[in-house]
Amino acid sequence: MNDQRPVVVIILILLVGLVLLTKLFSIQVLDDSFMKRAERNAIQRVVDHPYRGLIYDRNGKLLVYNNPIFDLMVVPKEFHVEDTARFLNLFGITKEHLIEKYTAAKKYSSVKPSPLIKQISTTDFAKMQDFLIDYPGLFIMTRSVRSYPEPIAAHALGYIGEINARQLERDSAHYYSQGDYVGLSGMERFYEDDLRGEKGVKYKMVNVRGIDKGPFKDGEYDTASVAGINLTSTIDRELQLYGEFLMQGKTGSVVAIEPKSGEILAMISAPFYDPNDLTGSEFGKTYTQLNKDPQKPLFNRPIMAMYPPGSIFKIVQSLIGLQDGILTPETTFACNKSLVACHNHPSPVNLFGAIRNSCNPYYHQAFRKMINREVSSNTFKDTEIGLNDWRDKVLKFGLGSRLGIDIVGEKGGDVPSSRLYDKFYGEGRWKYSTIYSLSIGQGELQVTPVQMANLAAIFANKGYYYTPHLIKSVDGDPSQIPAQYRVKNEVGVDAHHFDMVQDAMAEALYGTAARAIIKDLVIAGKTGTAQNPHGEDHSVFVAFAPKDDPKIAIAVYVENAGWGGRAAASTASLMIEKYIKGDITRPELQDYVLAGNFIY
Amino acid sequence: MRGSTDVQISRVDWLVVVIYFALVFIGWFNIYAAVYDSQAPQSMFDMSINSGQQLVRIGISVVLIILIMVADYRFFENLSLYIYMLFILILIATPFIGKEVNGQVLSIGIGSLRIQPGEFAKLATALALAKVMERPTFDMTKTNDQLKAFGILFLPVALILLQPDTGTAMVYFSMFLMFYREGFPQKYYILGIGFIALSLLSLGIENNLYLAIGIIAIMVILILMGKKTWQRIVAFSLIGLGMIAYSYSIDFVVSKLPEHQQNRIMVLFNPNIDPLGVGWNVTQSKIAIGSGGLMGKGYLEGTQTKFDFVPEQHTDFIFCTLGEEFGWTGSLVVIGLFVTLLIRLVIMAERQKNRFSRIYGYCVISILLFHFMINIAMTIGLFPVVGIPLPFFSYGGSSLWAFTILLFIFVKLDSSRSQQLGRIS
């Protein structure tokens, strides 16, 4: 009677199976959005941050390292203590502390970790590790911050901080992500690619409450992080430390270079700050504070401050004159104070005497001969050609453009060309009398302290320099440093011309900077005074020593400290003694520098 | 007696037995997977976890199967009404002696040995229906006989609704499939399907005005197509008005339902209503199954089911583990097994010589089909979440034993069909 009905039942069964399988096919095979949602649900991508490379000084002493900070974290839901008294005793906290932190943690989340004890020392951490397993829901979280054994060389080393939006945008390789730390200044920034290492990624599984359930697929897709490369800096920790000791309370720069290699032994920018202040969670606050400071402690003076070179530039003038054959050691000029002011000294003087006495009228007259060589009958044209030829020679001394030191933000200084005067006075409307200030290192000339130290290195090397740099070796290998720091730059002046100049610089000390003289250590130096329209002149001194086998070339700037023979020469002399002899034999000179009363 | 048992064993439908054990063991493997913790793996046989306990229940099921197979086939028919009455009494007593969980009193027993009478009452009802309907004069087209059948069916439903366990109560309505085979008029099914379709449309369509316009349009077409007697016009107009009134009233009725039932219905139409609340189960269950892909993530490699994203992962949502770890291929195998089993049961029911066996067979088909369909449909968001287990698969003693007894009584009846008198009308 109901013959067709069993067939209907079978069709119904088949239909149910078909509908279910069709729907399953659509969500399992056709629609892959569920797979992505499942991954978002249960798989967490955890970036394994590598250890940043360390930075050592030239003698293998540590300058920057990573300091692990241990925080004891608690997951309230899993945390369980039987014997509270024993727990408090083991972890060295009070009951109130436990209750307060536990309550706060529970309020935040019962399944996510919150700190129970912050910043545990390494020794306490070692102790805790043994009995940590007895307490479920507790674990140690390790962070690391940059640390400095001595609070020195802040400007040279630089600091790291969270990557900003612009840097993220420029990161075409997409290595960085929001919140990553990158070098923002100094060596930390320049050698970011070496120091940062390689990030690793771990995929871990979490359950519905966010609790870790172990690695995804036994870590098949995980990559280990690779620690950053350790760098050795050219900085001499002891010299840097001593330099900052001398420069405390002052404003200015000290740059010391090893002449034969261009390695920067010390680079001090005063006032300085403790690099430890710009690490960790306080970065933002401290940075704002330092940035607002009217003394500008963040301003890296050795590479960013520009001053007229003053008298020290006379040595460059002498060398160019000698090379061009316009000057000889015997060339003599009278100290004609009607041309330009000078102090009292025997007159007339030859070139040696001019350097020794820093005679302004001598260089006024000598420079005229260098500029106006009568290559054109038009005196304006003649001056223009002369100036530009002269400028090309000056640029070879590493002036007028960035040296290319391994810190970002270096200024180039300025050596004016005819274009500057054309712009200012009009073409053909200026001549030697317009630009004579250049002869004595004044006028439109601008030089940074590091360029000045480089000049001292050129004088020491008799005609060549290696671009000053802070990197000595990468991962212990000196050949890995950037190629540009292994290129010898010739300044285009023959070595024999330097002999007389060096002698005159050594002699000059007896006249202008007697304080700088050290027994059985011949220093060749030159004082300078950078005129300051806003107050007292800046005290400047460049030197190298020992004269016959130079180990150190140095430039010292002390702002508003007057004459170069006092503050700058004394500081430079102490630095040279410290570096070459290792200790200080003239405590009274050190006291004089520390006292800081240079205007009298 | 021994001789006759040997004869019966050879007549056992082994295909059904093989599919049964295949489903039970696939289920058992999935129960282990559902609770597997890769950080602290435990043996599948560990008695402290679900899979170990389920293995014991499977062992007890085997004992139950042996007992059924050696029993006299007449035993079930003769005792069917007494079994039914016993379970009615137990259902009445359950709210008083049972254990309350989440406001529901589902289980009775002493200590750890607990059973859910609701699961076994299905079996008792199936036996009672078969017994009452086997009479040669019984006719499902006659009102008198219809009422008898409905009485037996709805008595346990009423009692189960008191517990309250809506899901289990719904299962009893599956018996209308058996009624269909036994001659309950087709028009009621058309009406019922129409009623359900109208309900779903009313709930699914935001603005009931569109539905009302649609109904009017259909009625006008129907009137124009047939004879335009005034009786027909009045009848169709009244039916149309009734449908429109119903569509407006159902929203009101739903709003009077308990909130958790309301939500379960509304989530069906829009699982994104409240993905972290009501929609959570369905959303997470779909993510788990959907992330399985074609081949699945591999056994014990599932993340969604293991890490508690899917609730009830080893009981009502056990299909998620299968879907996630074995993908569509696994779904195909299991659904294929169920479909094969059900069709095989239809063929077996049709070859029965007496009416009792056939009706009982169709009861088994109805119950299994309903559980299979609703359970999987709810995990993939085709049906509201109702707490009913996947037969042979889900963790739990009562449901496994009840389905085992249900199925194997029919296997027993089938194996002894040659000894039975042909009373098929």
UniProtKB/TrEMBL annotation, chain A:
This is Penicillin-binding protein 2. GO terms for molecular function: penicillin binding; peptidoglycan L,D-transpeptidase activity; serine-type D-Ala-D-Ala carboxypeptidase activity. Residues 49-210 form the Penicillin-binding protein dimerisation domain. One of its GO terms (biological process) is proteolysis. It is found in: Cell membrane; Membrane. InterPro entries: Beta-lactam/transpept, Beta-lactam/transpept-like, PBP_dimer, PBP_dimer_sf, PCN-bd_Tpept, Penicillin-binding_protein_2. The keyword Cell membrane applies. It comes from Algoriphagus zhangzhouensis. The keyword Zinc-finger does not apply. It comes from the Bacteria. It is a single-pass membrane protein. GO terms for cellular component: plasma membrane. Its main location: membrane. Keywords: Carboxypeptidase, Cell inner membrane, Cell membrane, Cell shape, Cell wall biogenesis/degradation, Hydrolase, Membrane, Peptidoglycan synthesis, Protease, Transmembrane, Transmembrane helix. Gene3D superfamilies: DD-peptidase/beta-lactamase superfamily, Penicillin-binding protein 2a (Domain 2), Penicillin-binding protein 2a, domain 3. Residues 252-572 form the Penicillin-binding protein transpeptidase domain.
Automatic annotation (TrEMBL), chain B:
The keyword ATP-binding does not apply. The keyword DNA-binding does not apply. One of its GO terms (biological process) is peptidoglycan biosynthetic process. Keywords: Cell membrane, Cell shape, Cell wall biogenesis/degradation, Glycosyltransferase, Membrane, Peptidoglycan synthesis, Transferase, Transmembrane, Transmembrane helix. One of its GO terms (molecular function) is glycosyltransferase activity. GO terms for cellular component: cell division site; plasma membrane. It is a multi-pass membrane protein. It comes from the Bacteria. The chain crosses the membrane at residues 12-35, 55-72, 79-97, 149-180, 187-203, 209-226, 233-250, 326-347, 359-386, 392-411. It holds the Pfam family FTSW_RODA_SPOVE. It is found in: Membrane. Its main location: membrane. This is Cell wall polymerase. The lineage of its organism: Bacteria, Pseudomonadati, Bacteroidota, Cytophagia, Cytophagales.
